[in-house]
Amino acid sequence: MTAPKKKAQMSVYLDPDVMKTLSAYAARREQPMSLIAEAAIASFLSPDADERREAAIAKRLDQVDRRIARLERDIGISIETIALFIRFWLTTTPPPPEPVAKAARAQAGARYDNFVAALGRRLSHGPKLRQEISDDADAVQSSVGPE
Q: How far is it, in rounded angstroms, from Cα 113 to Cα 107?
């Protein structure tokens, strides 16, 4: 029977922050620091370390891709909602008589400026419409009760 190989000793100089992190990790795991350092070095030097890093990066990129796809979908829904509302409003609202239309055109610039100012305030300070909608939906659902 052959005797097991004895581990070789090595002295390493670590940055104080790295040493503190290693010490805290070893204490949490109730393992010796040398065992954790050996495992970390072995992991770093293993041939599949690059593959693991690549897999982790690919996973994160997939998550980012799904989030961007969700954002694109949400923006598309928002644009379609606004366009549909404008089309509906334009087709169902009769044009005002000419004397009223002239007065409305005279006020249009001021009303538009007020709209843009209100939109700016709303975007910078809130609350957002999507939050109000979910709050309203929650209130309606709680007043109706469970189905």
A: 10
